[in-house]
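Hi Y.,

Following your request, here is the sequence exactly as I used it, all 455 residues.
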Amino acid sequence: MKEKVRVAGGQGFWGDMLTAPIDQVRKGPIDYLMLDYLAEVTMSIMQKQRSRRPEAGYARDFISLMHEILPDCVENDIKVLSNAGGVNVEGCAVEIRKVAKELGLGGQVKIGMITGDDIMLRLDDFLNDGVEINNMDTGEPLSAIRDKVQSANVYLGAEPLVDALGRGAQILVGGRLTDTGLTLAPLMHEFGWTFDNWDQVATGTIAGHIIECGGQCSGGNCQYDWQTIPNLAEIGFPIIEAYPDGDFVVTKHENTGGRVNIQSVKEQLLYEMGDPHEYITPDVVADFTTINLAEDGENRVRVSGIKGKKNTEFYKVSISYSAGWKSVGTLVYSYPDAYEKAQAADKILRRRMKNLGLEFDLVLTEYVGVNSTHGHLSGEPPKDIPEVQLRIGVRGPNKDDVTRFTKEIAPLILTGPPAVTGFAGGRPKVEEIIAYFPALIPKNLIMTKVEILEA
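Below is the corresponding structure, written out as C-alpha cells. Let me know if you'd prefer a different format.
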C-alpha cells in the first residue's frame, strides 16, 4: 500500500483550459490524472453529433490531449481517468489505442473501457415493463416527453473504475461516470478501501467534489479577496494528496498561479450543494457537516473527519429532450437617454411581433448595463448612463415564429429610436432548446461492463 496518492484534477468541463492537464503531468509528481468532461447538456450535444456522424459522440479534445501527454504518462506511470467517452465510449477507446500505436507505445498501454450508462435504447423496454421513471422535480412521467428524448444516461459510480484499475488499465474512459467517482476510484484501488466502509467512501467522494471543477478550488471564480489572488493567467489546477487513514490535503504544483486556502476550498464545497447532511452519489451518502478544514502550509488545506452513510438503491438518470426553439437578439443604444431608447425599442418590437401574429411561450427582455444581472434589485439607473444593450429573447414550440422574430431586430436600426451603435453578430440564430429531465432508476436494472483494450 502506498503511503500517499496524488490525484490531479485536469478538466472541470468540456472546453476547460487545454494546458491544465499538460501542466499537471509535467510540473510536478502525480499518480493519477482525472478529467471531467461532462455536464448534463453535454450528453445531448454528443448524441446529436453521433446521429450525424456515427464515429462521433465523444470529447475529441481528449484524443488530442493523449497525443500530447501519453508518453509522459507511460514514462512516469501516471494513470488517467476520464468520462470523455460521452455516448460513444468504444469509439473513444479505439482512437486512444490508435494514438498509442502512432506514438510507438504499442504493447505498453492498457485502455479500460466502461459502458452501461447509456440507456437510450432501453427506455421503451423499461416503460413497457412498468418501471417508473419520473421527473425528480415535477413528478412528470417519462412517457410525457418520450418522443422528444435526445439522450438518457445513468450516473455510474466508482466501482467499474476500481475494477478496471485492478485489471491493469492505465487509461480509463467511460460515459456518464460521476465526477466524484473519478477521484474516489484511485483511492479505493490503492488503499484497499471497501465499498461498505462509508466513511472512507465519503472521504474519497468529497475529495472528488473538491477538484471536480478544476481551477475553481485553486483561485478561479473565487469571491474572497479575489483581487489578491496571484497569476490567474497561469493558474495551477488542484491536486488531492490522500492518505490511507482518510485524511487528504488539497494543494497544487509549486510555482503555479492561483491560490489554495480554506476559503477557496469552502467555496467549492458549497458548489451544487443541497442538503449538506446528505450529498447523494451512487457510491455513498456523504455528510458535508462533518468536514474539518485546516491550513497545512502555503497552498495546502488538510481535510479530515468525514462521515458517510449507506448508499441508496437507485441511480440518478440524466435525460435530455427537445423542448422547442429560442433566439436572442441584441442592439446597443448610446447616450443621451440610452435606457429610455432601449425601453422604447422593446415596446416597438413587441408590438410588431403581435401585429405579425407571432406566438411564444416567453418573451424576455434584459437591459445590459442596467438590470440584466440583478433584475428589479438593481433599482433605478442613473440618468446619464452612457450606453445600454437591449437583449431580447423568445422561446416557443413553433420554429417558423422564432425564425420570423430574428428578422425583426435589424429593421429597428432605422425604424426605431436613434443612436444604435452595435448590432452584435448580425441576425440572431435560431437554436433548439434542450431541456433536462432528472430521474431515478433501480440499480439492479443497470448492467455495467468493463473491457480492457491492449494498445
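The CA atoms of residues 45 and 349 lie 32 Å apart.

Thanks again,
Q.
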